[in-house]
Amino acid sequence: MELDKMDENGWKYHGEGNKSIVVSHIQHSQVLRFLKYSTEDLEHLHQTSEQALQDIHNIVDFSTHIMRPLLGEINVHHGEPVKLPLDFVKRLALRVEQERPESRTDKVMDQFSGWALCLPNLTKFPDHHREHRPPLCIEIKPKCGFLPFSRQVTKEVKWKVCRFCMHQRLKVSSGVWKRLSKYCPLDLFSGNTQRMYLAIRNLLDEPQNNLKIFRDGELIYGGMDDAGQQHDLNKLTQQLRSYFFPTNMLIQDPPSNKAVLNKLSQVIITALLTSWDAEGPTQPTRDYVPVGRDQCHASLPLLDCLKAHQSLPKDCVLSKILQVQRLDDLDIEGLYPLYKRVERHLVECPEERTRLQIDGPYNEKFLERMRHCPSEDNGSIEYAVGKVHQYRVAMTAKDCSIMITLTPCEGDEILGSTLEIPHSKPKFRSAVSIVDLDPKPYESIPHIYKLDSQIVSNYVKSMQSEP
Ligand code: ATP
Ligand code: ZN
Ligand code: MG
Ligand code: MG
Which CATH number fits domain 3-120: 3.30.200.110, 3.10.450.50, 3.40.50.10320, 3.10.20.30? Predict the structure, then answer.
């Protein structure tokens, strides 16, 4: 990328979340990720774009020094900070503004600092040849995959119904979404293929912001932030058919929509259960980690799934994410009093904020502080800070996205790593990576505590009013 020759016409709107806007290059397999700020923040930011630079550095440090070591050898992407010419950024911001969904416009793209992160476009392959079938990319934001196991949980329903399923009720009653999603993260993380099928089927039925499908880098399914948007599964299956069935069969005996979606689910499940390292898939593992007997009462899979063995291959992407999520072992109910302990300590000794690395830097020392946190509460500030740090890391793992990129291998040619779907053709060239590993602010803990009790009371109320 030649920074002095940046042309906004070479880039287009790709997507966004709560914290950032992503634009993709129209030819190269590259994206730029810009931070977003609320308008009040921006007035402040105008004076000092140092904040944006600090945020960008924190993101890179947090992914590199904290999340990557914890997630192990897997594709973790944070990107390279780049300083772009301000006039380019301003014109680009103008260009993407009209593409942005209405529901996201409460925040604006940072066009004052000039800083952004440059990443590979993970919806494509870096070396894809035009003559090959365009790559497919399935993005899943799986959310929290376990029921709290902390003794400090006071509300009984939290033992039975997972946070995602309860939160759905609140989101629908407050109008964030029009329809309930039946997706339950516990099914996806179960390692049981039947439950995983169900989870993916439910994601396809109501993708919300948990599922997106890209073809040739273009969003073709999900991800529309408009609450009322109906997703067209028929259209999707038409676009996907040729990826999973040979051309001659498509003409003679066209597969049903169900058959196409089954294949898609099968490929996704295989990718999620394959053990990966930084290079690609590794030998199938015999090492499994039990995922507990977690079963969410809001999701009702077939009875025999429940009896089945539930575990995840040790090095698959789901088990790596779950392991980090489980650093939240006190639940917000157990964590909140420790947060208050830290707050009291900081009132007495404000200079301790730096030593305790409350706002970073996110370096090896931060990781050590977290790892060496005493296992029992000895009343110390070290314990409280260690637990707060662990909780924030777990929050990041509850909010990240998995990108599965695929393309059928043509003929005998094999480029990069391939996935073989049992009893099925074709083989797929594939890559799995994790994105969105930003640090979650220390200051958001009181909000999470309040939200937790809102989610629970709303859920209990909505259950009582149901026949
Ligand atoms: P959230 O609200 O989930 O925290 P965020 O604001 O932190 O989201 P990201 O999730 O990093 O932002 O990016 C927003 C979207 O942009 C992603 O959901 C994904 O679709 C797309 N995206 C992000 N990084 C890449 C990448 N490297 N390649 C392709 N697409 C990407
Ligand atoms: Zn659930
Ligand atoms: Mg995201
Ligand atoms: Mg994020």
Answer: 3.30.200.110
